[in-house]
Write a structure and sequence with these properties.
Blueprint: H1 21-27, H2 35-47, E1 53-56, E2 62-63, E3 69-74, H3 82-90, H4 92-114, H5 138-150, E4 156-160, H6 166-170, H7 173-184, E5 193-195, E6 198-200, E7 207-213, H8 215-222, H9 230-233, E8 235-239, H10 257-272, E9 275-277, H11 280-300, H12 303-326, H13 333-360, E10 383-384, H14 386-395, H15 403-412, E11 416-419, E12 424-427, H16 429-434
Parallel strand pairs: 1-9, 3-7, 3-8, 4-7
Antiparallel strand pairs: 1-2, 5-6, 10-12, 11-12
Helix pairs in contact: 2-3, 11-12, 12-13
Length: 436
């Protein structure tokens, strides 16, 4: 495994090499301290530009690029607002489209009101909005989903500067979890909708979402959603508090004309992508990372980590599909390195923010977690016996009954080997070399 997420140290993002030029271009408009936290947050906005295209996941299912959701987490005043600036830049074409559609709607409303008592009033036009405002209601979301489906299955993108704003979209926090899961799974709305023109509405929910929030608020928002699948579907990107206080004010970009000219070239590639695609190098990478996730889960003996890693793989795979399109449908090593980092950064962020709540069901929301998954094999000496692992498991809050099964799994994965002569387990050379 390339990254260690069992420590508080942020997994270092790889160099953005060949094939990641669009991401590098976007980062020129962000302050350097926000480069790593912002990269995972860019893909929902980029993915919302791809419609009419499907990509085959390694399990042979076909997936669209909608349903991507990511949450930026950091302290107050840490420059999270730069995400909104970049979203506006990426979605400049969305805003122009929406302005035209809203003009149609205003004209219809004006004429309709003047003929309110007449049966000959104009039919309300379909006005699909690509970038709805953050205060969109649940009824407005569903109505827009119908219009977007009529417009060819387009995706609506929401950017919530504060995580609590998502509740309004869902009607209330009670229904937030269900709606977010349906968006991720590209489910249908599941209900008919009565309109002035008759009964309509059971659209496929095509949406991408980005959210931002401070750790306390984010922990409170998700505290009841950690084990129902909502948590795993959301990508998290955490910016920890800096160790030292700096008087330097970070510099942002200027969003000059030449930046937009370059960006428009990449946006055109996304908009023109239609059809079905299989990206074999990406799928091979995801298969290998799935093995790494199993290895990681065995080292820490953590079923929750194992469960959420499966959707971290899907989210990173979707980012890989977008990178492939941006790079004129060509795969590179640097793109693979970035996809791998996205998997580990998501898991590291989740554990930094929620590890204590995942482990103990703790509803204390005042601090981010300081205790991520623990690599128990690293905590043991190179030569150890069963009793030492049993004691370590008890110390880590795990039951002693799982000791033998964990030892068998470690032997199976060739992390350790057993000596019947000494009765001791020893870390293998391959394991020690891989963790040196």
């Amino acid at each position: 495994m390339k990254y260690d997420i069992t420590t508080n140290k942020v997994p270092e993002m790889p160099n953005l090499g060949k094939g990641t030029e669009c991401i590098k271009l976007l980062l020129t408009q962000a302050s350097k301290d926000m480069h790593e936290p912002l990269v995972p947050m860019l893909f929902p906005s980029l993915g919302a530009h791809i419609s009419g295209a499907e990509f085959q996941y390694p399990d042979r299912s076909w997936k669209e690029m909608c349903g991507q959701m990511a949450n930026l987490v950091g302290g107050s005043g840490c420059n999270k607002g730069q995400l909104t600036e970049l979203t506006k830049a990426i979605c400049r074409d969305f805003s122009l489209h929406d302005e035209t559609e809203m003009k149609k709607l205003r004209e219809w409303a004006k004429i309709s009101n003047s003929k309110s008592k007449s049966k000959d009033g104009p039919v309300k036009p379909d006005t699909p909005i690509f970038l709805p405002p953050a205060n969109t209601t649940s009824a407005g979301f569903l109505e827009n989903a119908i219009a977007l489906e009529t417009a060819g299955g387009r995706t609506q993108l929401f950017n919530f500067p504060e995580v609590e704003m998502a509740d309004q979209l869902c009607g209330s926090h009670k229904y937030m979890s269900h709606l977010l899961r349906n968006i991720y799974d590209m489910a249908q709305a599941g209900a008919l909708r009565a309109t002035a023109n008759g009964v309509s509405g059971n659209p496929t929910l095509r949406a991408c979402i980005t959210l931002s929030g401070v750790p306390v608020t984010v922990r409170k928002f998700y505290k009841n959603e950690l084990h129902n699948g909502t948590f795993g579907r959301m990508v998290f990107s955490y910016k920890p508090r800096e160790a030292t206080r700096s008087g330097h004010i970070p510099r942002r970009g200027e969003f000059a004309d030449n930046f937009y000219q370059q960006l428009d070239t990449y946006m055109a590639r996304l908009d023109m992508t239609k059809g079905r695609f299989i990206i074999r190098p990406l799928n091979k990478l995801i298969d290998r990372l799935a093995q790494d996730m199993a290895t990681l889960a065995d080292l820490v003996d953590d079923d929750v980590l194992w469960d959420v890693s499966k959707r971290s793989l899907v989210s990173a795979w979707k980012a890989g599909c977008i990178l492939w399109v941006l790079n004129t449908q060509t795969w590179t090593k640097a793109m693979g390195e970035l996809v791998e980092w996205l998997v580990y950064h998501d898991l590291w962020s989740k554990m930094q923010i929620f590890a204590d709540m995942l482990k103990d069901g703790d509803v204390n929301i005042q601090e981010t977690s300081k205790a991520g998954p623990k690599n128990m094999l690293d905590s043991l000496p190179n030569n150890f016996n069963e009793a030492q692992l049993e004691a370590l498991r008890l110390e880590s809050g795990k039951n002693k009954e799982g000791t033998k099964a964990q030892l068998r799994q470690w032997v199976h994965r060739k992390f350790i080997e057993y000596s019947a002569q000494t009765g001791l387990y020893s870390k293998t050379e391959a394991y020690l070399k891989g963790n040196s």
